Amino acid sequence: MIISQQLLRAENARRVRDVRPELAARVDLLTDEGLLAAREEVAAASEDPKVLAVCVLRGFDLPAWLGETYAFARRVGHEAAAAWRHDFTRTVFLAGNPVNLRERFDFDHVADDGSTAWLGPAPAEHSTALRRLLKLFPATAELPALPGTVVELPADGPAGDRAPVHRELYLATAGLTIAACLVHLHHLVSEAVLDGLLGPGDRLTLRPVPHLVGVTGPFAALRIGTSHGQPHQLRAYAALSAGRTA
Amino acid sequence: MNGTLTAQDPAVAAQGRRPGRPRVLLAPITVTPSKPLTPSHLKGLLWTDVMYRASSGLADVTYRYSPTTYHLTEQTLGFWEYLDRTVGDADYSGLSEEQVGEMYVGYRARQEKAGAAALRPYAEAVETHGWVHPAGARVLELWTAHYARLGMHDPGLLAHQPPALGAEESVERLSALGFCLDLRACGGPVYLDATRYGLPLRQIVDSHGRPNYLACMMRELLPLAPSFDEVVLLYDRELEADYHLVERVLVATGTTVRRVVLGRVPIDGRIRSARHGGWQGHTVDALLDEVGEGCDEAVLRLGMRLYFIAVLGTGQQQSFRKDVLRQSLARATRLLSDGRSPDPAAVPEVLARHRKDHLHVNPYRLTAGLLARHRPAPPRDLLEAVYL
C-alpha cells in the first residue's frame, strides 16, 4: 500500500467531516484551495480553543509517555471526548514537575512516578492558572534517536468484545522536533483510544522511520499534517497499523 | 566590623566571630560594571552600607558583594565579547564610566546576539582564573574611588570572589531541594521551580547553557546562606518576583530570610534602566563633582545618607532633586556642629531601637531618627561608626 497524496487527502477530509461537518460541507477538501481554506479556519479556531487538554512533562521518555497517554485517554468520558474532538483533540504541552503541582491542581491523570500529568480535556479556562504557572515544553529540540520499543498498554479494565491485539506505531522522524512528536502521537494515540482501537492489554511496537515510505498497511489510523514548507502537500507523520493477535 | 568574606568555607565565615553575637549576611543585588553609577544605584549602595555598619554594632555581619560571581551572565560576557570584536585592543585605563557606558548602550542597541560559542572563552577565563575585561576592571576601579570618597565600606570590588559552588553542582543542589526543572536533556533550559508555592517557573540557564543572574546567585548563596542566622536580600522593586523565588529556595535550606525592596530614583519623573543611557549629567561621578565641590568630607558623607535614605525612603515616588540634596547637606552640617547635648545612650542601645524583630538594623528608621527634632543629638561615635 502506498500512502499517496490522494489517500492522505481522503483521510484528512474524513477526519474534518467527522469533527466539523459544517466546515467539510462548505469546502472541497480534495482540492488545493479547499485544503488551504480549511487549514486556515482550523488554525484560527485553535488560537482560541473552547476545550483542550494540558499535558505536563518534566522530561521526555517516549515509551513511558505513550503508556501514560493511553491511560489518560482511557479516563476521558463520552461527553468530554465529544467536546474535545470538536476542537480536534487540542492539547497543550507544558514543562513542569507534576510532583510540585499535585497539591494545587486536581489532575485528571498522573503517572505513578509523577513524571507526567494531564488536566482535562475541559473548557480552556479550567487550565488557565496552570498554563500561567508553567512554560511551553521546549519547541526546538530535535528528536533523539528512538529505540524500536514495545509498549505494553496496561490491562486497566475489561477488554470488551475483543482480545488484546498487537499494532505497529510508525513515526516519521525526519525533521521532527520533540514538541512535534508529542503533538502528533498524542492526537493519534488518544483518538485511537477514544475510537476503541487501543484497549487494555494491547501492545504497540514503536517503529521510528525517516518517512512513512514503503510501509505496508493496512492502517487503523493515520496522523496527517501539512508537509513543512509545502502547504498543498500532506504528510503522514504517524500511523497505527491494523491489529494482529497479540 | 568583619569585612568581606573572600572564601566561602563556613569555618572561615565563623572566624573572628564574637561569641554570642548573631551572624548576619547582607547580600544586595550587584551592579554590572559596564555603565556609570546612577542615583538609583547609589541609593542601594548607601542603604546597604548603613545597614552593614549599623548592624555590625550588634551582630557579626558579612557583606557579600562579588562582581566575580556575576561576570558570567550573558549581559556582561556579551558586552566584553562585543568590545573585543568591535573596538579591539584598546587602552581602557583612561576611560571614564560614562565612556564605557556609551559603549554599553551601543552594545545593548544591537539586534544580533553573540552565540554561546563566542562567549565560551570569556566564561572560561572568568571561571578558571578570575579574569576581568579591562573595561570592567576600569569601571570597578573608578567605583572603588567613589566608595572611598563617600566613606562606603568596599566589599571587595576588585577582589576575586568566586562562588563556592560550580554551575553543575548548584543545579544538583537545587534538584535535591526540589526546586529545579532541568530540561537540558530535551534541548531545553533549566528552570527554577517553585510552582508548589504558586510561583511561576523561572528560567535560570538558557537552552545553550548560558546562566542568568539568578543561576549565578544560586552558586553563591546556596552554600553560603545556611551558616548565618539571618540573610538580608536588598534589591530593586523590578526584581520582586525573582527574589520571592530566591527566598523560597533559601528558606528550604533552613535559612531565615529578610527581603528589603528599594524603589529606584526617578530622574525628572522617569525611571530608566542604565542600559538605555539617559544618565548623562546624573551620574554619581557628575554629582560628586558638582555637589561635592568644596564640601566638607563628613558633611558630604552624612548629607548623602540623609538624602538617599531618610528623605527618599524605600519608595520611588520622589524624583531626584539636587536642591533637596543640598538641603540634606545643610542638615548634615547642622547635625555635625550640633550644640545640643548628645543622646547619653551607648551606641549599641541606640542601634537596637531600630532593629525590631530582626537581627539587622533598619537604615531608614535609624537615619530618619537623626532628623527628628526634640530629640537628643546623635552621639558622635554613632555618626563615626555608621555615617562618616
Automatic annotation (TrEMBL), chain A:
Superkingdom of the source species: Bacteria
Organism, scientific name: Streptomyces acidicola
Protein name per the record: Uncharacterized protein
InterPro entries: DUF6182 (IPR045754)
One family name in Pfam for this protein: DUF6182
Automatic annotation (TrEMBL), chain B:
Protein's name in the database: Uncharacterized protein
Organism: Streptomyces acidicola
